[in-house]
Queue: 2 jobs
Job 1
Amino acid sequence: MKLLYSVFFNAPMGGLHENVYSTVLFMKRNNCDVYIVLKPGLLQQRLNAQGIHTITTDFSDTEKTLKSIEDTGVKFDLIHFHPGPSKHAVLEYSQKYNIPIVETFHGTWSDAIYRHIHQLDAIVTVSDSIRDYLQKRINNNADRYKIQAYSYDEKFHVMPNGYDTNLFSEPKFYDINKKELNIALVTRFDRDKLFIMDIMLLAINHIKKQQDIKININIIGQGTYLNEFESISKSLLENTHHSIHLKGWLVDEELKSAYLDNDIIIAPGRSAIEGMISGKPVIAVGSKKYIGIIGNENWQFGVYNNFGGTGEKILDYEPNSVEKDIDFLLNNTERIRIAGEFSYKIAKQFFNADRINKDLLNLYEILYLGAELSKNHN
């Protein structure tokens, strides 16, 4: 198949980028000819290094972007885009050439979907909760949007973020004989992640009271608020024997090593999943909701919710939750290994990227063949 992707982003790296990177590489390995429309930068460079065709644009001129796609001379079989300005040119292209088109939603931003939902052949969400949120919003406002309620529900498909099966091949469980403890804080440090940062600072403020074991806090990520976050974190740990280490944004082997070298992970979404497959207990906190330690009471909700993807942020947060979760692990460190083994089993069962991407490829093929059938019928 000849596939065209389009993705817009503000931050140079993040979970969206990793989702796209995983998908297009899988499709290329499965004999698809892949092109992707995006801004120039780190993701473009990573994709080019893997032999992926890129079409660079700043998305400010729809007609110019559309022409750049047409200039490839490729007759695409299907288009897959992600929310934002990336949609405009490909929606026009899809209409002009009668090509099936898919949109993926990573969170509760609706991307004014009511304006173009009639053009979409399928809608992918990374969790059940995001699907439910979007469907409810669309159907509750159907009259306002001038669409028929429940007429598009069948177009939704849930395909979560997954871990790279080649990269995350072996977990590393906690060694109770360790003299120091490593805790990773993994997120993008931008405005839309402020709730996550607030919870992480509560965690650091509580960690400073621990005296029985030295704790090294490893900050993994980048963003506009990173320097401020690092400064506050260091001030909280001043005059303690604990330490803060800034690791930056990591990918591929460096990221895998970072997960394996840490004992506890505090992270949202995709990063929570990667921590789990690495055999670590994960305290999940997303941009919309605090989930807590992935355990028997909440793991199914965590899977449903994409580990904090939907919710009301601080309004949903029960005070002292992160402090209690940290104490649960640190007051009896044997629980660190047990929780890590539990996390690993869940990630292994539900978040294998090869299985997820195979389902996506199958969906592409169904949509393409269905479109061809309709053309012949007409």
Job 2
Amino acid sequence: MATQEEFARVQTHLELLSQGIPKMKEAAGKYLDTVGKIASDQKANNLILQQHAQIIEFLEIPQLLDTCVRNQYYEEALELETHVQKLKTRLDSVPIVQNIVTLHPQLV
């Protein structure tokens, strides 16, 4: 009789376990979605960190141009303007380039 009782207990536990599996699958799916979003954000952050120096240089262009003009380094200012025009042509779809061009039309 003890064996039958043990089988009955195992059967009860198996039924409870099989009832919990769909909830577990749903929770695992949500977890994987969250992990995927975090990994995507981390990849974007790593890319930004790798290009940090270039981004800073690009953001400093208006200030550098102003400094060149104030100090009468006109040739350097013209070279910088040419450089910005090349960047605009090459990177016109990048929002930050569009913002700099919009805010500083004297650069193009």
